[in-house]
């Protein structure tokens, strides 16, 4: 799979067009024209169609204080009402909402009525502890019915949730708890992944013990494995005990459309992750709308998004979008390679999944696994229930796209390559399966109403065929509202003055000269994308230099990786002489673990190289472009005349 195959065009088949919510390019173009003609009216129409409002809004977009845009601001609603009650009220209470498959294969189904009852009991439990509208609740839990119900319960009482991915370390969890000022943490005793029991509650204990989390009054623990745990009196409670006597109904807290539904931390180009704040009304609209149009979700579909609820994909396309539409979806606790690399395919077969949404990294690693072992090749499974495939999180290379299309989609399923971000709340540039001709490797065209464009450094449009900076010209309902507690950073990061008031995505892109199709060329800032996970280079550098005993200086860059998209490569100067051989290996392993403890295992550098110094200009600036070339294993052809210490390059090229 080393050479990408040449690109082809795949027109939507008659089957994909038939009955699609958006069928044919003419339908797509009509929607784009409607939005062009009156942006605010277009979104208002959809907000009335897709969201049930307690109090209808009278104004669509309020752009009186850019870039702090508001949508549907005088309307009130409740996200959990929209995801649960309204389907039960419509007589769909007996429909399966979630099909949960545990790591070990046990399956639990919950209907809309059951999920509503569970959500209400958790909501009442939270209320009994004094948690109320506007409070923040951190959720540190693995994939589970209770994870989804906990998010819904927070939404129900107007508490703002902040889910922290279960792979983050105690230190990262602590930082997020402190930044949110959370009053409660919802967790589980343990999580189970790949047959292993891993701690959750113990990490919460460790995080709280690190200090700075005095806001936390309650820790609620869901029982997953039954592990013995120390419970702090007055602070820790078992969820099942708390909710045992709670009623199964709970009047939703009707919140203003702009009320923060959640905060989700993501990496930026500085050391500190930012708390992306999302609204209730606009966010929910786009989560529901994109689930309907991009995934063409129908009443009898079995939808499976493999993301974790700790990431934005798990928010929009597990916790909110499919539920807002009354769909049936899979929630999977485990990993794609356990008990073997056929797990995804077996689950598609067993549950008759019709829409499957995953990340290119997963596809690439499963291609490798299938090529190495016939027994886990997708052809051994019946995947005929599939009708649509999706990809998210990073560019999908044409060869992986073709394999996915042929081997998983049987050549008949369209692939929606969805470009979006934590900050955008939902899909931004994506094919619509019944309309858009597909080109492998391209996320094709903007979602109707999303004014994506490519500009130069001064905000002027660049012609198709010429690369530039990806922006969104007009505000859209599910956009980030601010960075929690740091509105200045929000403005600076996303609305730099030179870009004429456009939203700066942070990615480079190019449009095809003929078709205008978008291809994302990668981040233009210091953000890496490793296995579809966003990591800031500065964040990893800070983690490395915080090992003050060993590390004097560190610089982190990304390099292309066949499986994970990008890999993390760290260049380190130690406080002791530069190590070689076994000693270098040992220290590299130590530093990897250090980063794992500081941030989480996903941030561990793949390569660590040691030097007596880093390549610097005479004014002391680290020359990162040289480090990027070294990381890739390229010969240095760039001009190194401004380099103070050229000899260092050879040292740094040595791998451990
Ligand atoms: O670089 C882009 C890449 O992932 C970044 C957003 O990461 P995150 O906020 O973690 O959200 C991931 C899930 C939506 C983007 O700035 N990215 C995401 N989707 C694609 C992509 N790059 C290329 N193609 C995509 N489909």
Category from helices, strands and their pairing: alpha/beta
Bound molecules: adenosine-5'-monophosphate-propyl ester
Radius of gyration: 24 Å
Strand order of the largest sheet: 5-4-17-16-18-19-20
- Approximate helicity band: 25-40%
Uncertain residue segments: 1-5
End-to-end C-alpha gap: 27 Å
Number of helices: 19
Strand content: 15-25%
**Shape assignment:** globular
Question: Biggest β-sheet: count, sense, barrel?
Answer: 7 strands, mixed
Q: Please count the beta strands (DSSP E, at least 2 residues each).
A: 30
Mean pLDDT: 96
InterPro entries: Ac_CoA_lig, ACAS_N, AMP-bd_C, AMP-bd_C_sf, AMP-binding_CS, AMP-dep_synth/lig_dom, ANL_N_sf
Pfam family, one: ACAS_N
Enzyme class: ligase
Protein name: Acetyl-coenzyme A synthetase
What does this protein look like?
The protein is α/β, with parallel strands linked by helices. It is built from 19 helices and 30 strands. The strands form 9 sheets. It has a 7-stranded mixed sheet, sandwiched between helices. A 5-stranded parallel sheet has the order 7-6-8-11-12, sandwiched between helices. The chain has a 4-stranded antiparallel sheet with strand order 21-22-24-25, with no helix packed on it. Helix 17 links the parallel strand 29 and strand 30. Helix 2 packs across helix 3, helix 7 crosses helix 8 and helix 10 crosses helix 11. The radius of gyration is 24 Å and the shape is globular. The protein starts with 13 loop residues before the first helix and ends with a helix. Bound molecules: adenosine-5'-monophosphate-propyl ester.
């Amino acid at each position: 799979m080393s050479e990408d195959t040449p690109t082809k065009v795949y027109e939507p088949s008659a089957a994909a067009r038939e009955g699609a919510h958006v069928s044919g390019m003419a339908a797509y173009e009509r929607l784009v024209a409607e939005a062009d003609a009156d942006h605010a009216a277009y979104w208002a129409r959809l907000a009335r169609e897709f969201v049930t409002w307690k109090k209808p809004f009278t104004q669509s977009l309020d752009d009186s204080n850019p870039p702090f845009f508001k949508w549907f601001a005088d309307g009130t609603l409740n996200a959990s009402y929209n995801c649960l009650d309204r389907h039960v009220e419509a007589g769909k209470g007996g429909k399966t909402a979630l099909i949960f498959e545990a790591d070990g294969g046990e399956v639990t189904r919950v209907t809309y009525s059951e999920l509503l009852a569970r959500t209400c009991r958790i909501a009442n439990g939270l209320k009994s502890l004094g948690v109320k509208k506007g409070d923040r609740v951190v959720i540190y839990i693995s994939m589970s019915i209770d994870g989804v119900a906990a998010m819904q319960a927070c939404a129900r009482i107007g508490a703002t949730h902040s889910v922290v991915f279960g792979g983050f370390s105690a230190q990262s969890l602590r930082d997020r708890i402190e930044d949110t000022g959370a009053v409660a943490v919802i967790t589980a005793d343990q999580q189970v992944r790949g047959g292993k029991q891993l701690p959750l509650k113990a990490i919460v204990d460790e995080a709280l013990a690190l200090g700075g989390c005095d806001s936390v009054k309650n820790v609620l623990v869901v029982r997953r494995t039954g592990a013995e745990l120390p419970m702090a009196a007055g602070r820790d409670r078992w969820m099942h005990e708390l909710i045992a006597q709670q009623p199964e109904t709970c009047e939703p807290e009707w919140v203003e459309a702009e009320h923060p539904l959640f905060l989700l931390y993501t990496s930026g180009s500085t050391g500190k992750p930012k708390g992306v704040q999302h609204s209730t009304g606009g966010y929910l609209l786009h989560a529901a709308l994109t689930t309907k149009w991009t995934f063409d979700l129908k009443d009898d579909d079995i939808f499976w998004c493999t993301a974790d609820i700790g990431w934005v994909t798990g928010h929009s396309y597990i916790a909110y979008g499919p539920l807002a539409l009354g769909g049936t979806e899979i929630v999977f606790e485990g990993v794609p390679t356990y008990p073997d690399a056929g797990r995804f395919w077996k689950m598609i077969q067993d549950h008759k999944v019709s829409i499957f949404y995953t990340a290119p990294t997963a596809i690439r690693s499963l291609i490798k696994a299938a090529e190495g072992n016939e027994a886990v090749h997708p052809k051994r499974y019946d995947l005929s229930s599939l009708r649509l495939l999706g990809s998210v999180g990073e560019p999908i290379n044409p060869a992986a796209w073709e394999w996915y299309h042929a081997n998983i989609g049987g050549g008949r399923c369209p692939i929606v390559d969805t470009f979006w971000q934590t900050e955008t709340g939902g899909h931004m540039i994506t094919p619509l399966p019944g309309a858009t001709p597909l080109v492998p490797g391209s996320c094709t065209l903007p979602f109707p109403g999303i004014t994506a464009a490519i500009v130069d450094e001064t905000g002027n449009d660049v012609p198709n065929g010429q690369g530039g900076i990806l922006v969104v010209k007009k505000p859209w309902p599910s956009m980030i509202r601010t960075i929690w507690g740091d509105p200045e950073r929000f403005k600076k990061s996303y609305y730099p003055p030179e870009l004429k008031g456009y939203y700066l995505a942070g990615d480079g892109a190019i449009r095809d000269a003929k078709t205008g199709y978008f291809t994302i060329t990668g981040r233009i800032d210091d953000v890496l994308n490793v296995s579809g996970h966003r990591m800031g280079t500065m964040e990893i550098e800070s983690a490395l230099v915080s090992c003050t005993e060993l590390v004097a200086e560190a610089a982190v860059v990304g390099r292309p990786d066949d499986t994970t998209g990008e890999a993390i490569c760290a260049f380190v100067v130690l406080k002791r002489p530069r190590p070689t051989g076994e000693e270098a290996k040992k220290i590299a392993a130590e530093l990897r673990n250090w980063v794992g403890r500081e941030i989480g295992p996903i941030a561990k550098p793949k390569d660590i190289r040691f030097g007596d110094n880093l390549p610097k200009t005479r004014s002391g600036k680290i020359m990162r472009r040289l480090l990027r070339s070294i990381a890739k294993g390229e010969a240095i052809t760039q001009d190194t005349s401004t380099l103070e210490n050229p000899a260092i390059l050879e040292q740094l090229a040595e791998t451990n």
